[in-house]
Amino acid sequence: MHDLQWKKIVIVILVLLLPCIPFGSSTDYILRILTTVYLYMILSLGLNIVSGFTGLLDLGYVGFYGIGAYTAGLLTIHFNLPFGVIILLAAVNGAIWGILLGVPTLRLTGDYFAIVTFGFSELVVLFIRNELWLTRGPMGISGIASPSFFGHSLSESWHFYYLVLVLLSIVLVIIHRLEDSRIGRAWYAIREDEIAAQCCGINLVKYKVMAFAISASIGAVGGAFYAKWFTFIHPDMFKFWESVLILCLIVLGGMGSIYGTMLGALLIIPLSEVLRIILPQYLMNSRYLIYGIILVIMMRLRPDGLIPFQIAQSQKNKHAQKRLFRHHETYP
Amino acid sequence: MKKGLYSCVCVVMLLLATSLWADTIYIPVASPYTGQLASFGEGVKNGALLKADELNAAGGINGNKVEIQLEDELCDPKEAASVATKLAKDPKYSIIIGHLCSSATLAALPIYRDAKLPAITPASTNVNIGKMSPYYFRNVYKDDFQGFFLAKYVHKIKNFKKIVIFYEVNDYSMGLMLAFMLEAKKLGIEILGTEAFTSETTDFKPQLTKFKMLKPDAVFIPGYAPQGTLIIGQATSMGFKVNFFGADGLDDELMLKNQNAEGLFVTTPFLPDKAGAQAESFIKAYKAKYNKEPNWFAANTYDAVGIAAAAMKAVGLKREDITKYLAGIDTKEKAYEGVTGKTYFDANGDCLKDAFIKTIKDGKWVSADQQLIE
Amino acid sequence: MVFDQSSLLLQQLVNGITLGGVYALIAVGYTMVYGVIQLINFAHGEIYMLAAFVALTLITQCHIPFFASFFITIGICGCLGVVLDYIAYRPIRKSPRLAALITAIGMSIFLQNLALILWGGQIHSFPQDVLPKIFTKIAINFSDVIVTWLEVFILCVTVCSMFILHYIITRTKIGIAMRAISQDKVTASLMGIPVNRVISFTFFIGSALGGVAGILVGIYYNAVFPTMGYVAGIKAFAAAVLGGIGSVPGAMLGGWVLGITEVLGAGYFSSEYRDGISYAVMILVILFKPSGLIGKPLPQKV
Q: What pTM was estimated for this model as a whole?
């Protein structure tokens, strides 16, 4: 235990000091990749609430991500609100849509739920693409002002690195608190057995909708940061593939486990860039071919994810828990 | 066997050594080479590599070897931004060719701008690109220019009265459509209807069925050739005979394979039968190397690399100087003469080129009998 | 004008039935695999795409006549499905379902990029002279409503395939074995059913049908390209869920419902929201009938 604590401290210090390490001309490149990694950590932590904690396969998470990005983009373009306000409004808007999606889909299970969420995210993207009066459609929204604090506008890579780190820490703290709370336990109970949970007096409607709302608002926060960081958003950024990618992260990392999902993001997101660097030019065309093979092999070697949930939970009686998880493969 | 291995190692060492000692000028060409839009990137890649070969055969840039560095970004803005960041701060690069999709270009643009790195896009047509950065140039039309031009052409020369528009839901196509509609309204052309399609679809019959009932004089397809040829083919198969026309997106070898595309006319920056020896030798060299006809992506990229090389030849490798040189190409007299005609830039870095109309006759692209001279 | 309207509707219905038939063929592959091992086989769309490419290569490069290549391709695709199952899905059959899902996604990315490298990214088309001449001829021309022989052929092939499939599932021994496995894998194996072999067979049939769809679409729209499987796969998956996933007649019905809604939506409502209309209908059906059009409701575990 003591050992683990030390490791944690070392990792935190490394993460904090990273922008100070000079990598020469590729500093920005490395920082950008890491910023992307942290952004995807936020997103996968958000998705993990619905898919990991509550056990519902959500294939449309990118819908909330897009809603957040466009909320932030439009608010900046039209009203130029401060960053904190924008993040809050994006989170609220995400939560509203999460509830709107959550309420009608309450009684759906398994793949039916998955396909409805998928349809929802496709409708969101189609709306963004076609309603020119609001979103400027396929022209995208360009020139979104960077966030500014006390009169200083963020522009350097390390500014955004720390900004996303702050957001990630906030999300992490919230999720940690939730996991250990009554709410988190209610979610686990719902995942393990809905009927049993209901019998124990857990209000299914309340806790499921709560999971949706929180998950969606985290997705929207990710989107808002993305819009402010990129200064440009476009409907093509929020395609179905993004949902699949985020899902890959949490499955690969270990469904339901907080550190697992983060590790998943850390390994998968830079993969395409790493392949770009290590592959010679003539193999450039096979970059995603290799990406696909790596996904297959990783799943073959660690089908329960890199940090499976039961190990992440530092509880006694691991054995019984393991049996429980094997038995209830209700998911998706 | 062992000998072979040794000689291999020697050759590799030699190559490494030469690449270390001789100054090589790297020109990154960013475009999708994998993923859904890889077909567009193929032309870009081929055009760039062909130009580099020719430059090297002619002694490189001031004696330095040119090497094209292909940067794949799948037309994904996120990847484009990563590529841009990777390139921007590296002093090795003095100019970028790319990106292809407007969305990718717009994502990469602020990064190049902050690094004061000049870039030429051979294919992004979004109207905003030029305005947003003094370091971004393009040797392709803006969306709106061709739309205005086509409306005038069909009104004055073809005398079409009723037109329907079949557009793709992307910025290129919609920009063209909006400009066309604006001009058409002024000229009194009636737009009977507009229908949309997405790039992923191959089924255009529901929309075409609707058009068929409207009985228009012509169908305007402001899209790309892969979909264009399918649209024309499907229209013919359902007995919908009508005139088709489009912009440079349809200007592709692919259309010639379609027997039903006879009579299609499009805008183009250059006419092969009038473009002169340079274009002819380009087409010949391209065919010899890749065994197919060049499309406009290839031609534009070929010229973009040419412009970049000309700039480096004239003023060296400093980013500032190259930008200044490119911004200085602002009149027809100073224009770069490439295979796509004369290219020069306006104050925003958008290219100014003459537009011509070409048409398919007996399975070949030829210049239209009547041109619109403004 | 009234006449125009009705012939417009008829023509759109013809378009919708053809498109829906293709969706149904692909959806059947999804639903069969789902029925036996509860896996959303994301790579199924890629098999459909590979079929079109294989047929194209056989016809243009190897100069094999159309109908011969048609059957060879179907065979190749079936085998490909079996190989896919053998190398990718079988080793992780006992793992959580989501691991298999990610594997399927990985295989899908792999196959799509493989096709991209082998055949290049541009749209390929079948040369007109290699296809039977009759395909382009008009079968029915009834007051501007045009049906080509190709459309008739597609409809016939779709319906025939479905009847054969229905026969296999309900009347043959292996079909019964498939249904037994879909009920309960463990019990089925206790009854002496070779579970893995039956699953392989399911993959064979499903992929072969996907292959049929791939060839038909390839010649109907005359466009073959590496990413064609993506959208078609998603739509077919939606069709399978719409009909009730796991149910073969459901997949057929779902395919047609989706195809016709999509075409009518594009024709009468808005072509910008063409895909949106089909997804919206799908969502509504599922919300009001959570197990799909003719699917069995999932048993509640207590």
A: 0.86
